[in-house]
Amino acid sequence: MDIIRVEGGHHLEGSVAVSGAKNSALKLMAATLLAPGTTTLTNVPNISDVHVMGKVLKRMGAEIEVVDEHTLAIDTSHVDSWEAPYELVAKMRASTAVMGPLLGRFGKAKIAMPGGCNLGARKIDMHILGLQALGVEFDTEHGYIYADASAGLTGTNVTLEFASVGATENLIMASVRATGTTVIDNAAREPEIVDLATMLNEMGAKISGAGTPVVTIEGVEELTPVTHRVVGDRIEAGTFLVAGALMAGPAGVEVTGFNPMHLNMVIRKFEAMGVPFERTEGGLRVRRAERIEPIDIQTLPFPGFPTDMQPQAMTLSALADGNSIITENIFENRFMFASELVRMGADIHIESHHAMIHGVTGFSGAQVSSPDLRGGAALVVAGLIAEGITEVSAVHHIARGYERFVEKLSALGARVEHASVPDPDID
Ligand code: EPU
């Protein structure tokens, strides 16, 4: 069994560069399907979710050249299959992002139904309703969704019930090739959506309003391949900022490679908790919070507080001088992490989608298990300040979205390593 072992209590210092954003890279890879030829993506994070998306595209007939560790040249000229198979969708729900581009380019897609995941039910009804409005017909059989737009996609007005990231992206990627104009109202505004629209516009699409609640897409006849750099990962950056807020030495920790504007709400909340930040040329420097103030946070679509930073924020608030409240509005199962943190000495009471956190004076190292990607990373961060040794298992979750997490923390001075321990004997 692979674990990450952390010895707590060592100061962090220096600078860490974040990788390209997972949640952007995956959609940009899917979007290459729209432009026959070779699209080159740079600043692609070397993480397991990207490897899965690579497999999805290859299964369809794309050729992928790994130019260097962070550059992929994806040739979609010879794509001749429109299927995202179950074994890959089950590994990574974001495989469903190929639905929009497949419909845009070929007018058909066969996608395994994603089912739930560690974060909850995670339906895709809004993707389907929106695509139906564009003229796509759906059928489900044997666990697969068959989408057919052979009669053509026609631009229309779609109002999303909730500003879903995935639905907004699938709708944008389908409607770039529709006849006429599509308007998505209540669209998600995440920086990763802006990155996607930017690349599609570079390819020849006509998308305006990305990053606002109303996105307008004027359909075009064709898209051509480009070279595009993936936006920096704001969530990876936020995770290192929390590590610094807890354990930075006197010189602080600088985090670079991302746009601090993408973390506005996170920085505001952390400042209110007493975390000192300073802008630097390449990003942000964080210093250790002398005293952590309690906080009230609720997760919301961008520009609200990101659900992907909720476990890291909970780690910080668990050491506050007082009682904090965190409300999770996006994913119903995202508090699973809290019970692991309790094993390290946190005092957290969950009531439906609210967490009441009574600050404690310290964590004690323990054996804990990553419930999911962000929760796993937050447990490693908690281990940095815990007394003694923390062993985090189920670390494959962390590898999905954090490139060289252990190595980057070690370079800052953390005592953290990958280790292998025998699987527990169960009689
Ligand atoms: N939802 C529906 N129906 C839909 C679509 C969404 O009910 O058709 C619900 C979901 O079940 C969820 C909420 O709406 O409760 C938000 O879902 P959204 O579609 O916005 O999220 P997503 O596209 O599935 C992406 C990221 C997540 C991130 C969320 C929110 C990717 C690959 N994933 O998911 O990232 O938390 O947006 O910002 O882009 C992570 O990186 O750890 C991660 C989970």
The dominant shape is globular
Main beta-sheet strand count, sense and barrel state: 4 strands, mixed
Radius of gyration: 22 Å
Question: Order of strands across the widest beta sheet?
Answer: 22-23-1-24
Strand content: 25-35%
- By helix and strand content, what is the structural category? alpha/beta
How would you portray this structure in words?
By secondary structure, this protein is α/β, with parallel strands linked by helices. It has helices spanning 22-31, 48-59, 86-91, 99-106, 125-133, 165-175, 191-202, 234-247, 264-272, 310-317, 336-343, 373-385, 396-399, 405-411, and strands at 2-7, 12-17, 38-42, 63-68, 71-75, 83-84, 108-112, 137-141, 144-148, 157-159, 181-185, 206-208, 214-218, 227-229, 248-256, 277-279, 283-286, 296-298, 323-327, 347-351, 354-358, 367-369, 389-393, 415-420. The longest helix has 14 residues, at 234-247. The model has no long low-confidence stretch (mean pLDDT 96). Uridine-diphosphate-2(N-acetylglucosaminyl) butyric acid binds next to helix 1, helix 5, helix 6 and helix 12.
